[in-house]
Write a structure and sequence with these properties.
This is Ribosomal RNA-processing protein 40. It is found in: Cytoplasm; Nucleus, Nucleolus. It comes from Pneumocystis jirovecii (strain RU7) (Human pneumocystis pneumonia agent). The protein folds into three domains: 52 residues, RNA polymerase II/Efflux pump adaptor protein, barrel-sandwich hybrid domain (OB fold (Dihydrolipoamide Acetyltransferase, E2P), Beta Barrel); 80 residues, OB fold (Dihydrolipoamide Acetyltransferase, E2P) (Beta Barrel); 81 residues, K Homology domain, type 1 (Ribosomal Protein S8, Chain: A, domain 1, 2-Layer Sandwich), CATH 3.30.1370.10. The protein is built from four helices and 16 strands. Strand 15 and strand 16 form a beta hairpin. The chain is globular, with a radius of gyration of 19 Å. Helix 2 packs parallel to helix 4 and helix 3 packs antiparallel against helix 4. It has a five-stranded mixed beta barrel with strand order 8-9-10-12-11. Strands 1-6-7-3 form a four-stranded mixed β-sheet, with no helix packed on it. The protein has 236 residues and is of the alpha+beta class.
């Protein structure tokens, strides 16, 4: 799929084929004005057009704006009878229902505690109300990568741009490290990454490699990965 990029400023109009209007997929940094039938930028950054119908702006902002379909790492802040309120690094807490987990009933539902970390998927997002999340992948698969994240180490305050790049299967960081080091990882579009390994020394080395990769090109990332692999051999 072809991906086109250009720099855009707040208020600028994004042009699209009017025949595709009903099928547009609009992501962060853009607003569609129905009455004017125009699409405009609300943030400064790189306008990303993937194919003919998908548009979003890649910009560095530490506050997360929920987008339907995003994978996020949240922290339980409030526990109540109907579910949980979860911090997503945004302006509002996310709503997680008590039964919004894979293959659960009222008797088998998880009993998350305040402070617990979860890997979830955004299923509803609106500027005016709290976003909704669930710990399912939205398919009929019996297993899911979503749910409570136990143990490990949470990296927070990362740029959303870095997390989006790492989520790309063609990005070299996780594939290079994972080929030689056994570890678990969850990458959230909200600027958080969770790492778990069998030794704290390995975890610390992985965290450092991820943080260093933010401003590096692919070749330098591979170099950092090789150095990390060499460093953790004593714990493998």
């Amino acid at each position: 799929m072809n991906i086109h990029q250009s720099v855009i400023f707040p208020g600028e109009q994004v042009h699209f084929n009017e025949s595709d209007e009903t099928q547009l997929r609009i992501g962060r940094g853009l607003t569609y004005f129905c009455t004017l039938r125009t699409l405009r930028a609300t943030q400064m950054g790189r306008l990303i057009q993937s194919g003919k119908k998908t548009f979003y702006i890649d910009y560095d902002c530490r506050k997360y704006t929920p987008v339907i379909g995003d994978s996020v790492i949240g922290q339980v802040m409030v526990k109540h009878a109907e579910g949980y309120k979860v911090d997503l690094c945004g302006t509002r807490l996310g709503q997680l229902g008590a039964l919004a987990f894979e293959n659960v009933t009222r008797k088998s539902r998880p009993n998350l505690q305040v402070g617990a970390l979860i890997y979830a998927r955004v299923i509803y997002a609106d500027k005016e109300i709290e976003p909704e999340i669930e710990c399912t992948d939205g398919t009929d698969e019996k297993s899911s990568i979503f749910g409570e994240l136990k143990g490990g180490f949470l990296i927070h305050g990362l740029s959303r741009s870095l997390c989006q790049k790492i989520l790309d299967k063609n990005h070299p960081l996780l594939s290079t490290l994972g080929a030689s080091i056994p570890f678990e990882v969850a990458v959230g579009s909200n600027g958080r990454i969770w790492i778990h390994s069998k030794h704290v020394g390995i975890t610390i080395a992985l965290v450092q490699a991820i943080k260093k990769s933010e401003s590096l090109n692919d070749n330098d990332i591979i170099k950092i990965c090789r150095e990390t692999i060499k460093e953790v051999q004593k714990w493998l």
